[in-house]
Design goal:
The chain has 344 residues and is of the alpha+beta class. It folds into three domains: 64 residues, Structural Genomics Hypothetical 15.5 Kd Protein In mrcA-pckA Intergenic Region, Chain A; 80 residues, Pseudouridine synthase, CATH 3.30.2350.10; 166 residues, Pseudouridine synthase (2-Layer Sandwich). It has seven helices and 19 strands. A hairpin with a 3-residue loop joins strand 5 and strand 6.
Length: 344
């Protein structure tokens, strides 16, 4: 049940916020408020530290009690946009989502709305006493056209700790990718520096010798399933470069199917499937497919799993997202029309 403003919240100062100013402490807890809005509420006498009205330059110390009377709504609120989301897991601190393809994670550039963050804001608003009380915490990203598992935080402490885990590469990420070509080795390591595409004006990355500002990059891979002219691989990035898996697999000659930047184009059709296998592509019920209809209109890349230490409970947790339907359909057609083998 939602309540209206004013709303009073009671907080306890965490260890890591020991010694910060009262407004900085409050905007950590209420991330949909700007510093200006919080400073105004402090000046208006709406904040108390250990029962005493706070001044704007007061600092807080571990274990202290803080009460804030939120007399105004948030002024940094994401537009809540309801959308069906597949939640793989949820607790008081985290929510794990199976992100569909063609969904940008956060408003940016040409995508000013319709993001995962907007959908999560609407979801949180339905579950909290006050709209805007919780702001989705984005601690990592997937490309708009990449599907799969994503974790988002609900509070500042989980956001801070999990963000540090990602920065320190303490989160194990595993992806599934369908690539052009038959990879002969069952497993391998790609150790190619990644830099910006020469010439600028693009977000493309490159492993070529003329790449701009190349940085060391490392990806491990193993073959999951082989087809006549395609391979399904599992890839684990051990650095965090933009488009790392996409550019690394292309860099060793096995670009991801339907990758608009690093492959033969951003669409994969039934006719391409037939040309690759030499056999007619058929649907599950045996009827022929439209040769020119896209089977995939985005890169065949899926974030399959995340493994990390829970930022609050300290348990080791693993989350897996079922393979997206469009990629699963292509795999099904490949299994019907072409020889299959798995890694030995």
């Amino acid at each position: 049940m939602h309540v209206e403003y004013p709303f009073t919240a009671a907080l306890t100062v965490e260890n890591y916020l020991h010694g910060v100013r009262i407004d900085s402490f409050l905007i950590r807890h209420f991330r949909n408020y700007t510093p200006y809005r919080m400073q105004r509420m402090v000046r208006a006498g709406q904040v108390r530290i250990e029962g005493v009205v706070a001044e704007t330059d007061d600092r807080v110390y571990r274990g202290q009690s803080v009460a804030v009377r939120l007399v105004e709504p948030p002024d940094h609120l994401l537009l809540p946009e309801p959308r069906d989301l597949e939640a793989l897991y949820e607790d008081d601190w985290l929510i794990v989502i199976n992100k569909p393809p063609d969904l940008v994670v956060h408003p940016c550039g040409n995508y000013v709305s319709g993001s995962l963050a907007n959908a999560l804001q609407a979801y949180f608003d339905r579950k909290t006493q006050l709209k805007g009380l919780v702001r989705p915490g984005i601690v990592h990203r997937l490309d708009r056209l990449t599907s799969g598992v994503m974790v988002c935080t609900k509070d500042h402490l989980a956001h801070r700790k999990l963000g540090i885990h990602f920065e320190q590469r303490r989160v194990l990420k595993s992806y599934l990718a369908l690539v052009h070509g038959s990879i002969s080795d069952d497993r391998g390591e790609i150790d190619l520096a990644i830099g910006e595409w020469p010439g600028g004006g693009t977000i493309r990355m490159s492993t070529a010798p003329d790449a701009v500002d190349p940085r060391p990059s490392r990806t491990l891979y193993e073959v999951v399933e082989r087809f006549e002219r395609f391979t399904l691989v599992r890839a684990e990035p051990h650095t965090g470069r933009l488009h790392q898996i996409r550019v690394h697999l292309a860099g060793i000659g096995f670009p991801i199917v339907a990758d608009e930047f690093y492959s033969h184009g951003g669409v994969f059709t039934a006719s391409e499937l037939e040309n690759a296998s030499g056999l007619p592509a058929e649907s599950r019920n045996g009827s022929s497919l439209d040769h020119h209809a896209p089977l995939l209109d985005r890169q065949a890349l899926h974030a399959h799993s995340l493994r990390f230490v829970h930022p609050v409970t300290r348990e080791l947790v693993t989350f897996e997202a079922p393979l997206a339907g469009d990629i699963e359909r292509v795999l099904s057609l490949l299994r019907q029309s072409a020889p299959v083998s798995t890694a030995g």
